[in-house]
Specification:
Number of domains: 1
Largest sheet: 10 strands, parallel
Structural class: mainly beta
Distance between the termini: 28 Å
Shape: globular
Radius of gyration: 16 Å
Order of helices and strands: EEEEEEEEEEEEHEE
Helix content: under 10%
Number of strands: 14
Length: about 200
């Protein structure tokens, strides 16, 4: 599945649900979902550039990814495992919760082999994810990422579903140019040197 310059909103459950799939998204806005903005199940290959994910109206993570699928409700039977290769760049992953990213490998030994992820130049909201018994190295590995405070300005008016960057937004000029992506979700030109994070260029 490939998406370019798309807004997905007002969904009963997920914005994107990808099981054992391949997805590619550029300049995609996902908001006002009943659960995760993006749910990746049982691995696959995924790349997201200049995307904005916000689940401010629910307590589920904006972005959830796993490399397995349970075949029974209690996950006590057969577990189907498939390698995950996930990459996200110049994007915003935020919402109402303290943790807006869920990383769910089938086993700790999967990380780096059957469970690979890369975040670069993104705004990420994490708390429990970086505890010692989870992924304490996440922010170190998250190349040039921003961890916002609740008082930081990001969007013009999220309550009115206006996800353009505020004039004082901390996501302005924080991106790294990506070859081949020169415009935002509305067709406005991206900065050739310091693009903004997310689907909109101010």
């Amino acid at each position: 599945m490939a998406l370019n310059a798309v807004e997905i909103s007002h969904c009963a459950i997920y914005g994107i649900y990808a099981r054992h799939a391949t997805t590619r998204a550029e300049n995609v806005l996902i908001h006002n979902t009943g659960s995760h903005a993006v749910a990746i199940i049982q691995g696959g290959q995924h790349r997201y550039d200049y995307c904005t994910f916000s689940t401010s109206l629910n307590q589920d993570e904006s972005l959830s990814m796993s490399n397995y699928l349970c075949t029974d409700p209690l996950c006590q039977g057969l577990v189907l495992v498939n390698a995950l290769d996930f990459q996200i760049n110049n994007s915003i992953v935020t919402g109402a919760s303290e943790d807006e990213i869920a990383l769910l490998p089938s086993a700790p030994g999967d990380i780096g082999t059957l469970f690979r992820y890369r975040f670069s130049h993104c705004l990420v909201r994490v708390k429990d994810l970086i505890k010692a018994d989870a992924f304490p190295q996440f922010l170190t590995e998250c190349e040039s990422c921003i961890e916002p405070e609740r008082t930081d300005r990001i969007f013009l008016d999220e309550d009115k579903f206006n996800f353009r960057p505020d004039s004082m937004a901390i996501v302005l000029d924080k991106g790294l140019p990506i070859p081949g992506i020169q415009r935002d979700i509305l067709g406005a030109g991206r900065s050739a040197t310091t693009p903004d994070l997310g689907c909109y260029e101010q």
